[in-house]
Specification:
By secondary structure, the chain is mainly α. It has four helices and no strands. The protein starts with a helix and ends in a 5-residue tail after the last helix.
Amino acid sequence: MFLARLVVTAVRVEGRSKSAVAREYQVSRRWVHELVRRFETEGEAGLAPPVQTPAPQSGPVGGGCGIRTHGDDLSPQRFSRALPKRL
C-alpha cells in the first residue's frame, strides 16, 4: 500500500505524468493508471491490496482416500473399510 500511495501522490499532487511515475518507480503504466482510477472511485480504500480467498479444494476431503469428515461417515466400521489394505 505504501508504493501505491506514493504513485498516486506523484500523479495527483505533484502533477507528474503517469508514464514518468511508472518509469521512476519501475512499475507498469497500466498499474499506475489502475491505481489512480481506483483512488478516484474508492479513495484510500482503493489503494489496499485486494483480498484473496483461497481456491476451492477439488476432490474428496481426507487426502483422496474416500473418507468424509462430516455426518456419521466416521463410524469405526466405515473408517476401517475406507482405508487401503496393506500388503
